[in-house]
Structure formats: structure tokens, C-alpha cells
């Protein structure tokens, strides 16, 4: 019986998250990339999404 096909993309080696620095939040990645400090967590998350899709 053949294995089922998946449509998942292989891992890219980038795992993003956010980090708090006082009243600021920034996006961080396991590759060492860091986004700009933001007061909005939502904007920091969007920075992380843009990093992984680039």
C-alpha cells in the first residue's frame, strides 16, 4: 500500500516567535534574525510572518 501524499511544505529551518523587551515586542527567529521593536504585538507577529514567507 503506498504512503499517502501530503501537501505540507518541508521545514525551512526558521521558527519564529516574539520576545518582550520592556514595553516593546519584537519578532525573533531561530536563524538569528530579529525584527524591529514594536509597541504592538500584532505588528511584531506580522514581521515574523513576513520573515518566514520571504
Description:
The protein is α+β, with helices and mostly antiparallel strands. Helices cover 24% and strands 22% of the residues. It has one helix spanning 41-53, and strands at residues 16-21, 24-29. A two-stranded antiparallel ribbon has the order 1-2. A hairpin with a 2-residue loop joins strand 1 and strand 2 (24-29). The longest helix is centred in the last third of the chain and has 13 residues, at 41-53. The mean pLDDT is 84.
Q: Note the main sheet.
A: 2 strands, antiparallel
Summed up, the helix count is 1
User: Any idea what the radius of gyration is?
Assistant: 15 Å
What letter string, H or E per element, gives the SSE order?
Answer: EEH
Cα separation of the termini: 37 Å
> Ranges with pLDDT <50 over ≥5 residues?
none
Helix percentage: 10-25%
- DSSP E strands, number: 2
Beta-strand percent range: 15-25%
Structural class: alpha+beta
Q: What would the principal axes of the Cα set say about the shape? A: globular
What is the mean predicted local confidence, pLDDT? 84
**Which sequence of strands runs across the widest sheet?**
1-2
